[in-house]
Design brief:
The protein has 1775 residues and is an alpha+beta fold. 43% of the residues lie in helices and 19% in strands. The protein contains 27 helices and 60 strands. The strands form 15 sheets. A five-stranded antiparallel β-sheet has the order 1-55-54-53-52, with no helix packed on it. A five-stranded mixed β-sheet has the order 19-20-21-22-26, with no helix packed on it. Helix 25 (1616-1685) runs antiparallel to helix 26 (1687-1728). The model is unreliable at 19-31, 482-489, 963-981, 988-1017, 1197-1205, 1225-1250, 1403-1426 and 1728-1775 (pLDDT under 50).
Length: 1775
């Protein structure tokens, strides 16, 4: 089937291209027959130079010599004519290049506007050049004869961008550029346009036919690709195009594509991947594995050959891909990509960017020629075999715009540079490239040194875009074999002599002065640098200029002073006097501040020139008008003169116009060529005598100007003179060369009138910025921004050959000793310092070194003086007191001390002022540190020490409790969707005004059925009132019953579970199972997706950290409370022990010495146990501090203030130590409280023991002793027990604290982990918040679009309802019309035509197509008007009321149809809007999915980063079960840490799950049985419901005859209006019956009157008969008399009688017709019961009087019969 379609398309195309021409075309062909042998004369059509009329300039002033360039950046600028001839475009030339001999042939553009595109015929017998310009042509040349075969005209307006033949070469496709972008298919052999349409509104790069289907085309360009089909329609062949939709793929410029056999297309992209197009949508994006692009940079597929798809890229690589894999590619993933690897590839080379390829025409050849955008043409063998040769670079050129060009002044050599980082030397005579040298940066300026600088003429100076200037030497390498390292070509070499960097931006201009002693360089950094010329170029200095430097020009030798003219792009001109080349090298900076200079700032005068020209023109016109007026008004009064039109205003462009070029005319005077608004003139300027410092505020006007023909939009960019200044050569913005012959010694250019011009470079982008003459003025060389370089000879080729015998330019020989010279060091770093920057850095370093040396010397001197003074003080202290000098005596003079003190105070104040901010900052920092480290502590650390043990326990240092401010959770509220929903609802309410129009529609519908107005005050009877009440009660009961039933159904349906209903218990069980199932994912699991409720963020993590810190603080606070309580216990214990010690001492005083037990050592309260007492002091402490301070002041009286502060700190420490020793001493004597008292007591006791006691006293003494011993033992035991209890409590508390320390350390580790996680979360927060915000915006947008879609759906529903209502109204109008026809009989067809007739209506044309519709309606109305006469004749006897009713119904029908069309149009607009919204919704959904995926990736990455954090888990050995060979393995990477309780729970859970599984299996079986039973019951119930519904419908049809809504029928109440209408009907029928009876009487009377009239007419007829008889008799008698009287009178009488007879016959006939009409109407009214016209309303026509013959004449009445009134009205209505 596809083959048949293709064949039919081919047939249609061939028929279309072979179709016979029209009559006009045949007439044209009669004038000019295009046979196969017809050719055009190329010389007659080619563009020629412009020469000023009347001038003596020869047309062949310049002869093209050679083209040295190649526009490699132009698309598809390489074609192959045969196996050795290449063809490409060079500006306005078509170049044919022989690959073997490098010979060039040229064809010039016929339009002079350039060439847009080229292509070659498949047979290689023709080639095409599509031109540019105004209404350009397509030229078809025959090859190899190069004869012009065909010229195709009218294809586009400005320029062609692409041309291409179809597969067999019979059809040529062309596409134009802006503004029309016209796609045209040509029958090029006949020069005919076959098909044409606009391609698109964007730039088109390429168009081509499918090689497999001749009816398919493809075009591509800026951001689009379009697929075309030649379709056959009923009007002929048409071009139908479909733009490719990129979908989720970003839009890209498409340069290349390949059509596949099955109709698919593979195109390239800017990012290096391939796109597979199926239809007009992307099927897949082709890339390499792991998402790598097919090429680095842009890619172009170019051919499908032998199952391989070939592609080229800007990375310089050719790759071959498997066609089958690409053809079946399908991007099913989210990104729509299909990964495939290339089968073969070829790397052409480094710094290669392939843009197009052409294949060799040889059979079975794999040779291709490639265009390199970096300025080369390559020869490639793409056979991809083992013997495939390497790529061969056939030709190399500059790539991009030419930035510098100059010629040697001693030989025919030319040097150029460009941003492609190369400097090239060309031989103009031999038309070859001599050598090339490449650098790290692109060249921007170039100058060939004059012989004064280098006598051999081999020195070049080149500026580059990084501000570096390189001095290069050209020499011949035939006798020199030293390597230069620059990859030279040919027999010459370029050697780097010196490199220096005077500028920080691109070098834009270079110039040698007239003596060759100074080199000046200008840059876009607004500086001009001067160098002294010599063996090495030494810097002199630089000056600043007001703008970027455009051009530098030294004054000629005719000037007395050597000055430099600096032309700036901003319109400033600066003249700088030449500095002395041997000036001293400055020490600080190279800036020449004292150099003489003059400045000029251009001010626009073009508007004033135009104004003066307009004034002159108006004066001339007025003079002519004045002369004519004087001749015309010699004899009349003088007419008032017309007011002058307003002159054009003075305009000053802002910003100012750019300055392009200029040159000296005489000292202080110069010519300027401006661009922009001021183009079109050469301005003669001079420097003002008074120079202002601020050039930005002052501007100067030229004192003279010279108009340049046709340059208002084509300014002059470059100017040069021939050697003898006989010719002025200009290069223009459009790429044209202009030559002006000049007279000698003409600085004012007064002889610059006639000129010669020729378009050379590309007219759009080939701006001619460089034009030079050779040293002997034989050649003119041009270089433009299109990369082309042309050489022209001023002599004819034959004469040039005779005058120049040599065939090659002379290259300077190498210098003597060149092989011993060391290569100069190049500057390869673009960021290297410039000369001035290096100078400033050296000066800064020198100043720093000098300052350091001075500071060091001062420091040494001060140190020596300090040592001497200290030695004197030491020696003075060693002297005796009486000879020792006091400090006052050591002062030489008090004034020195005072002065020093004053200076000291002043400096202190200065230092304080200087350090005030630092002092404040330090004070604030100290307060913050104190607040953080001291004030933030809740209390001091308290340590409690045991009494009989060294165990101690200390409190935790806690910060002051502050309220933890947890930032609120980030809740993203999306109010926009709600707002959008409200807005949508509001719009729905505002737009859904369909219901509001029901009233008007109803009114119109009621108008269609006119009813009699209801009389007011109709009263119903009691029976009818009772009937209405009962009906209302019955309806109310039915309504309540129905409502109750609906509520029951609603409740029942509410209780009915949904299809996806889940049992709450089951759902709860599933949720519990998911939460408690024990899913323990590993931290190393990368694909793990964290559930939404388990995801964390910074707020949650901060809250978690706050909870952990609060728990730690609570534990520490609790422990601190216990320790402080224990400390208080110890304090109480110490006081109690002291009291018990007192008691013990009293007891022991009463005991004998040998009975006394040693008292225990009393514990003391250490200072660390009561740290709050450290800040408590009394008067003794303060007094002791004062004494210590006085002693310290006496000892350190000679020390500085800082040392005094350190002494104060030492005093406080010493005082604190003394207090500690004192406290410890007081506590240490606790075991022996009162030593003196004890010794006294002992002595007394010893004295008492010496006394003897009696028996009673001894017994009492023993009793007391026993009691005291008991008290002693009790006290000692209590003291010991209290101490042991305290130590036990301390030990227990210490154990608890150690356990708490272990827990707190674990918590600290957990806290560290949480902080690390928080830092990670904070790192991801910004990315996550950004993606979340984007997702929220997309979600809001999606909701907004959904609400708008719903709104559109609602509006569509309303519109459909309105359309249905309008259709019903239309049907009602038609029905009303048919009902009004009744039995109209013969008038029905005419009335139907009138009803259906379209009527012109005056309305506002709101739409574009309304005009056409009005025209159509006008045509219809005209056609209808043609039939109006016949219709009016037909409807003369029609009823006027019926006719008026038909017209009214027609008006209503037209109104309804108009409204219906409007509603349908609005509905269509809503549908289109909805489709757009749906497409946008799909796109937004895709974006939402992509955003969610990106957010999920962020979550995964975040979780992975958190999983990579190390978590410390302390374990005991018995907890480790990962044992290998009874030992712990060294590698623990496979270890899994699990909670033992969790592991036990999971094991128990396994058993529970087995049990639950069995239970669920049984429950599932039971549920399945119940489900089957319910399905069976449901099926039975549905069948029963179906049967009942059928029975109900049958009963309804039997009773009512149609199906009704029973609920509505039951709820029908008594209709009072209906009852009133019935009552009114009865009354109206009674009234109508009475009226009918009255009308019957009237009809009967009319019948009688009719009978009377009939009788009367019968009598009249009888009288007429009698009169006729009498007339006959009288005629007979008269004839008898006339025979006797004479013939004349007889003939006259006969004629009178005949006329009277005819009149009477007509009268009878007319009366008979009237009678017949009356009878028909009476018959019609009697059948229809209609209105009968009364006799008084329609009187019968009067009878004509009867003629009498009294005097021989017949008298007749002049009255005519009158029609009935009713028929007259009908007739008028028809008219």
């Amino acid at each position: 089937m596809a083959e048949e379609d293709t064949a039919s398309v081919e047939k249609n195309i061939s028929e279309a291209f072979d179709v016979k021409p029209s009559v006009m075309q045949q007439q044209q062909e009669v004038k000019q027959q295009l046979s196969a042998d017809t050719y055009y004369k190329y010389e007659d059509l080619t563009s020629r130079p412009f020469v000023t009329l009347g001038s003596e300039i020869p047309e062949n002033l310049l002869h093209l010599s050679h083209s040295f360039g190649y526009d490699s950046r132009r698309r598809e600028n390489l074609q192959l004519l045969d196996d050795r001839t290449l063809m490409f475009i060079a500006g306005n030339l078509l170049v044919l290049l022989d690959v073997v001999t490098a010979e060039h042939k040229y064809l010039r553009s016929c339009s002079g506007g350039g060439i847009g595109a080229i292509t070659v015929h498949p047979s290689r017998e023709f080639f095409v050049a599509a031109e540019k310009g105004k209404q350009p042509n397509i030229l078809v040349y025959e090859y190899p004869s190069l004869r012009l075969y065909r010229v195709l005209r009218g294809g586009t307006a400005q320029a062609f961008s692409s041309v291409q033949f179809n597969h067999d070469g019979s059809v040529l496709a062309s596409v134009g550029g802006a503004p029309d972008y016209m796609l045209t298919l040509w029958n090029w052999r006949r020069e005919e346009v076959v098909l044409r349409c606009k391609a698109i509104s964007q730039e088109v790069y390429r168009v081509s036919f499918s090689p497999y289907n001749p009816g398919l085309l493809t075009s591509s360009g800026s951001g689009h690709i379009k697929f075309w089909k030649i379709a056959s329609t009923f009007t002929g062949l048409k071009l139908q195009g479909h733009v490719g939709h990129f979908g989720i793929t970003p839009a890209t410029d498409i340069d290349g594509y390949v059509e596949l056999p099955d109709g698919k297309v593979v195109s390239g992209t800017e990012w290096g991947n391939l796109l597979l197009w199926d239809g007009n949508a992307i099927k897949a994006e082709i890339c390499r594995r792991d998402g790598r692009s097919c090429h680095t940079g842009a890619v172009q597929p170019f051919v499908l050959d032998d199952g391989q798809l070939m592609t080229i890229g800007s990375d310089g690589v050719v790759r071959a891909w498997d066609f089958e894999s690409i053809n079946v590619a399908d991007g099913n993933g989210d990104n729509g990509r299909f990964e495939v690897e290339p089968m073969n590839e070829m790397v052409v080379g480094r710094n290669v960017s392939l843009s197009s390829v052409v294949k060799s025409p040889q059979t079975d050849a794999f040779i291709w020629f490639a265009q390199d955008s970096n300025g080369a043409i390559w020869k490639l063998d793409l056979s991809f075999t083992n013997t495939t040769p390497d790529p061969e670079c056939l030709f190399s050129f500059h790539a991009g715009a030419i930035k510098g060009l100059d010629v040697s002044q001693k030989s025919h050599l030319m040097a150029t540079t460009a941003p492609d980082r190369s400097v090239r030397i060309f031989d103009i005579l031999s038309k070859t490239e001599v050598t090339t040298s490449r650098f790290n940066q692109g060249g921007t300026a170039l100058i060939w040194a004059p012989p004064l600088v280098k006598e051999s003429g081999g020195l070049l100076v080149t500026g580059f875009e990084d501000g570096v200037v390189r001095v290069l030497e050209l020499y011949s390498a035939q006798r020199h074999h030293m390597l230069s390292g620059r990859n030279p070509r040919g027999d010459a070499r370029l050697r780097l002599l010196q490199a220096f960097k005077p500028h920080t931006a691109a070098v834009t201009a270079l110039a040698f002065d007239r003596q060759g002693d100074i080199l000046a360089s200008g840059s876009s950094d607004c500086t001009v640098f001067f160098f002294a010329v010599g063996e090495t170029y030494s810097p002199i200095g630089f000056v600043h200029v007001p703008g970027p430097v455009q051009e530098l020009q030294w004054s000629p030798r005719s000037h007395s002073e050597s000055t430099l003219l600096v032309l700036c792009q901003s319109g400033h001109v600066v003249e700088v006097h030449s500095p002395h080349p041997k000036a001293q090298n400055p020490t600080k900076t190279f800036q020449l501040l004292d150099l003489l200079r003059r400045s000029f700032r251009f001010r626009s005068i073009k508007s004033r020139i135009k104004r003066e020209e307009e004034i002159t023109r108006r004066k001339a016109v007025k003079e002519e008008e004045k002369k004519e007026r004087e001749k015309r008004l010699q004899e009349t009064e003088r007419e008032e003169e017309d007011e002058d039109e307003e002159l054009p205003p003075i305009y000053i462009p802002d910003p100012p116009s750019p300055l392009y070029c200029g040159f000296y005319s005489q000292p202080g005077h110069f010519w300027l060529s401006m661009g922009g608004f001021d183009s079109g003139f050469l301005y003669h300027c001079k420097f003002p005598e008074e120079q202002d410092e601020d050039l930005d505020q002052v501007s100067h006007e030229p004192f003279d100007f010279l108009s340049v023909h046709d340059t208002d939009d084509d300014p002059v960019l470059s100017v040069t003179f021939s050697a003898e200044r006989q010719l002025l050569l200009c290069g223009t913005h459009s790429g044209a060369v202009r030559v002006y012959p000049l007279q000698p010694d003409d600085p004012g250019l007064s002889s610059m009138r006639a000129h010669w011009a020729l378009s050379v470079h590309d007219n759009q982008y080939g701006h001619l910025r460089h034009i030079r003459c050779s040293h002997d003025d034989c050649f003119v060389l041009t270089a433009g921004d299109d990369g082309n370089i042309f050489s022209f000879s001023l002599l004819p080729p034959e004469e040039l050959q005779r005058s120049l015998q040599s065939t090659r330019a002379e290259v300077p020989p190498p210098r003597v000793g060149l092989e011993n010279k060391v290569l100069a060091q190049d500057i390869e770093d673009p960021a290297a310092d410039s000369i001035e920057t290096a100078k400033q850095n050296l000066e800064t370093s020198r100043l720093q070194r000098e300052a350091e040396l001075k500071l060091t010397a001062k420091r040494k001197k001060l140190a020596e003086l300090q040592r001497t003074y200290k030695q004197l003080l030491t020696d003075n202290q060693r002297l005796s007191q009486h000879v020792r000098l006091t400090p006052e005596e050591l002062q030489l003079d008090s004034c020195f001390q005072e002065q020093a003190e004053l200076e000291k105070s002043r400096r202190i104040l200065e230092v304080r002022k200087q350090l005030s901010w630092e002092d404040e900052r330090s004070r604030v920092a100290l307060s913050k540190i104190q607040e953080w480290f001291w004030d933030s502590l809740e209390d001091n650390a308290v340590s409690v020490v045991g009494v009989h043990s060294d165990h101690s326990v200390s409190t935790y240092l806690l910060q002051t409790l502050t309220e933890l401010q947890t930032p609120p959770d980030h809740v993203t509220t999306s109010t926009q969707p709600d707002a959008d929903g409200d807005a949508a609802a509001e719009r729905s309410r505002r737009r859904g005004g369909g219901a509001a129009d029901d009233s008007s529609h109803t009114a119109e519908e009621e108008a269609l059925r006119p009813r009699a107005p209801r009389p007011a005050g109709i009263k119903l009877g009691d029976r009818q009132e009772e009937k209405l009440r009962k009906a209302a009660e019955k309806a109310e009961q039915a309504r309540a019953k129905i409502e109750k039933r609906k509520q029951e159904w609603t409740q029942l349906y509410a209780e009915k579970p949904d299809e996806d209903y889940e049992d709450p218990q089951a759902a709860r069980a599933i949720r519990d199972a998911r939460e408690n199932v024990g899913d323990l994912p590993l931290r190393t699991e990368t694909e793990r997706t964290v559930p939404e409720h388990l995801r964390t963020n910074t707020e949650r993590k901060r809250a978690e950290i706050n909870v952990l810190e609060k728990n730690i603080r609570d534990k520490q606070t609790e422990m601190n409370g216990r320790i402080v309580a224990l400390r208080d216990t110890k304090v109480r214990l110490v006081s109690r022990l002291q009291a018990q010690a007192e008691q013990l001492h009293d007891v022991q005083q009463r005991l004998a010495v040998h009975l006394r037990r040693p008292p225990p050592v009393l514990p003391m309260v250490r200072p660390e146990e009561t740290p709050e007492r450290r800040l408590q002091f009394d008067s003794s402490t303060l007094e002791r501090y004062r004494v210590l301070r006085e002693q310290s002041r006496l000892n350190f009286i000679q020390q500085e203030e800082e040392e005094e502060e350190e002494g104060t700190t030492r005093l406080l420490e010493q005082l604190e130590k003394e207090r500690d020793v004192q406290d410890r001493g007081g506590g240490g004597g606790g075991g022996n409280l009162h030593p003196s008292l004890s010794s006294g007591k002992i002595e007394d006791e010893e004295e008492e023991e010496e006394e003897e006691l009696n028996e009673l006293e001894a017994e009492l003494h023993r009793e007391e002793e026993i009691k005291l011993l008991y008290e002693q033992d009790s006290l000692l035991e209590q003291m010991e027990r209290s101490v042991r209890r305290f130590d036990a409590e301390l030990l227990l508390l210490r154990h608890h604290k150690l356990h708490l320390d272990w827990q707190l350390k674990t918590s600290d580790l957990r806290h560290i982990t949480l902080c690390q996680e928080l830092l990670l979360l904070m790192e991801f927060e910004r990315r996550e918040s950004g993606l979340q915000g984007a997702l929220d915006r997309l979600v809001r947008e999606e909701k907004s679009i959904a609400s708008r879609v719903d709104e559109c759906d609602e509006q569509l529903r309303l519109k459909q309802r309105d359309v249905a209502k309008l259709q019903e109204r239309h049907a009602a109008v038609v029905a009303a019309f048919h009902a009004s026809l009744g039995q109209s009989g013969n008038f029905e067809a005419s009335l139907v035509r009138i009803f259906r007739k379209n009527v012109r209506r005056v309305k506002t044309r709101e739409h574009r197509g309304s005009h056409d519709e009005d025209e159509d309606s006008d045509e219809d109305s005209d056609e209808d008007d043609d039939d109006s006469g016949s219709e009016e004749n037909t409807l003369q006897n029609c009823d006027s009321q019926l006719y008026e009713n038909t017209l009214k119904l027609r008006e209503r029908r037209v109104d309804v149809e108009t409204l219906l069309q409007e509603e349908k149009r609005r509905a269509d607009a809503l549908k289109e809007e909805r489709d757009v919204l749906v497409k946008k919704q799909r796109t937004v959904k895709v974006s939402v999915t992509a955003a969610e995926n990106d957010l999920e990736l962020i979550h995964r990455e975040k979780q992975q980063k958190m999983n990579e954090l190390d978590v410390v888990v302390p374990l005991r050995l018995h907890q480790i079960e990962f044992i290998s060979d009874d030992s712990l393995p060294s590698d623990l990477s496979e270890v899994l840490v699990v909670d033992r309780t969790e592991l036990d729970r999971l094991q128990r859970r396994i058993e529970q799950l087995h049990l639950e599984k069995n239970q669920q299996r049984e429950a599932r079986l039971q549920v399945r049985r119940d489900h089957g039973r319910l399905i069976h019951d449901c099926r039975d119930l549905k069948a029963e419901i179906r049967e009942l519904e059928e029975q109900c419908d049958a009963l309804m049809m039997r009773k009512f005859g149609r199906l009704l809504d029973l609920e509505a029928l039951q709820t029908l109440t008594g209709n009072r209006d209906l009852e009133e209408l019935k009552q009114q009907k009865v009354l109206q029928e009674t009234q109508w019956t009475t009226e009918i009876k009255e009308w019957d009487v009237k009809v009967e009377a009319s019948h009688d009157a009719l009978m009377e009239v009939t009788k009367h007419n019968t009598e009249l007829l009888a009288r007429k008969k009698n009169l006729v008889d009498e007339n006959t008799e009288l005629k007979r008698k008269l004839d008898t008399r006339q025979k006797n009287s004479g013939a004349p009178f007889q003939d006259h009488r006969r004629r009178v009688d005949q006329e009277e007879t005819r009149r009477l016959q007509a009268l009878v006939k007319k009366q008979s017709e009237q009678a017949e009409v009356i009878r028909r109407e009476i018959h019609f009214l009697s059948r229809k019961g209609g209105h009968v016209v009364a006799l008084s309303q329609a009187p019968l026509p009067p009878l004509p009087p009867v003629s009498t013959t009294t005097t021989g004449h017949t008298h007749t009445s002049n009255h005519r019969p009158v029609r009935p009134f009713k028929l007259v009205q009908v007739h008028k209505s028809h008219k």
